[in-house]
Design goal:
Elements (H helix, E strand, L loop, with lengths): L2 H8 L9 H17 L3 H4 L3 H18 L7 H24 L3 H25 L6 H27 L24 H22 L2 H17 L2 H23 L5 H37 L12 H8 L2 H10 L27 H33 L5 H15 L9 H29 L1
Length: 439
């Protein structure tokens, strides 16, 4: 146990023992992950069970733990997302193109954000346990371990199979029980960074083995967004450390420039790489005398182009609907185009702009900027800490979701809650050190 953990334990803020309620916590978070992130229940048309899980789990969590009244950066982030909920419902009530879709999507995001509030209040309290950090790691590792059995059977003809329940199509890429391989890769990124951090800080062989398993499995997702997000996060980390030597890391301008580079620069990079991949694959088809298909069968140039979207189409739709069309499912509004025609977009910047308006998008950017400035950048310098690895995973998944995602997912909110908790305990640790020096 390092000095950071010892200080937390001395102040009653760190529990290394796993208690009964921690086992219950693991099961509850597993249910939320399956409900929000995977396709397992959705694919089996169990919508009633999904609703019960999303409503019931937060209530059970409230009964298990005492809560902390958020202060400082945690309070600021909660306020931002509370304002986002208000903005979402107000604009949707005025401009919605489909009231039923609005109620469905609006309720889902409201419940999700309230669940995030509860997680922050639990993680930042005196109940903090290592199980909060490791639960997503164990969940993803267990899912992948079993999914690799079916993946190996489908791809290489391994004799053992679990009936295909843990490896959804496409079979040439690892997707486990997730709707799409890229979504699995996104949920693996926190586990990759945090297992590496736990291994470096705790010298645990278990986390080293899990880290190797995750890296191998991550490769088989063949997620372009995943590969770019990992590489981009490492690049941003070293770029920030280099800039910190020559700039004032506490200045607002420094944080603004780096956060803009992270989001806007990553968007341009993703678009450029997808464009290059499409050109390479097109040349490959011409040389092979094929008119369709892909080097990776489950990925086609049309679908990859649709991932990023037609920017002229997006601009025109925004000019026609400057206040958005209310929070709705993509299929319920023509502003999201038609899938397969090359103008559909699933990038979060355009989605939130067209559903919650410019104010909603700016609130999301404001939340990201505050986390970047107050938590991510400070964690880049100084001694290695768990906060650094949590912050890196937070940046990584935001880059990933530029290609396929919403930013506001259970996985993202869980990581954010962990970041806020570790930052609070870092403040306690720093204050403890200052007090010891003063005495």
């Amino acid at each position: 146990m390092n000095n950071y953990e010892l200080i937390l334990q001395e102040n009653g803020l760190y529990e290394n023992r796993v208690k009964t309620r921690e086992y219950i916590f693991f099961i509850l978070i597993l249910l939320l992950y399956i409900s929000y992130e995977t396709w397992f229940l959705h694919g089996n048309n169990l919508s009633a069970i999904i609703t019960i899980i999303r409503l019931g789990v937060p209530v059970v969590l409230l009964s298990l733990y005492s809560l902390y009244k958020p202060r400082g950066i945690a309070a600021s982030i909660i306020t931002i997302y509370f304002l986002f909920i208000l903005n979402m419902w107000i604009l949707s009530a005025i401009f919605t193109v489909n009231i039923e879709s609005t109620i469905g999507m609006g309720s889902r995001y409201t419940i999700l954000i309230v669940t995030f509030f509860i997680l922050v209040s639990i993680f930042c309290s005196k109940n903090f346990s290592l199980i909060f950090l490791t639960t997503p790691i164990y969940i993803i590792s267990i899912i992948i371990l079993f999914a690799m059995i079916d993946f190996g059977h489908n791809r290489w003809g391994f004799p053992i199979s679990l009936g295909g329940y843990l490896d959804y199509a496409p079979h040439d890429r690892l997707s486990a029980i997730f709707k799409e391989p890229s979504l699995l890769a996104a949920c693996m990124e926190y586990s990759i960074f945090m297992t590496y951090g736990l291994f470096r800080l705790r010298k645990s062989k278990l986390f080293f083995i899990i880290f190797i398993l995750l890296i191998i499995s991550f490769y088989f997702t063949q997620s372009i967004a995943g590969f770019i997000s990992i590489a981009g996060t490492i690049l941003i980390f070293y770029l920030a450390r280099w800039l910190i030597i020559n700039k004032n890391p506490n200045s607002i301008s420094f944080s603004i420039y780096l956060s803009i580079f992270t989001i806007i620069g990553s968007t341009i990079l993703l678009s450029l790489i997808v464009y290059i991949i499409n050109l390479v694959e097109l040349q490959y088809f011409i040389e092979q005398g094929a008119s369709s298909g892909s080097i990776i069968p489950s990925r086609s140039p049309v679908e990859q182009t649709a991932r990023i979207g037609d920017f002229s189409f997006m601009y025109q739709q925004f000019m026609n609907h400057p206040f958005g069309v209310g929070i709705v499912f993509e299929n319920d509004s023509p502003v999201f185009g038609q899938k397969g025609q090359g103008n559909i977009t699933v990038i979060p910047i355009y989605y939130w702009l067209m559903t919650t308006g410019l104010t909603g998008l700016l609130l999301i950017f404001l939340g990201f900027f505050k986390i970047f400035k107050h938590i991510c950048i400070p964690s880049f310098f100084g001694n290695r800490s768990l906060l650094r690895y949590a912050a890196l995973s937070y940046i990584c998944i935001h880059i990933h979701h530029l290609s396929y995602g919403r930013w506001l997912t259970f996985n993202v909110f869980y990581i954010l809650a962990i970041c806020l908790a570790l930052y609070r305990f870092k403040e306690i640790s720093d204050n403890k050190k200052i007090s010891l020096i003063a005495n």
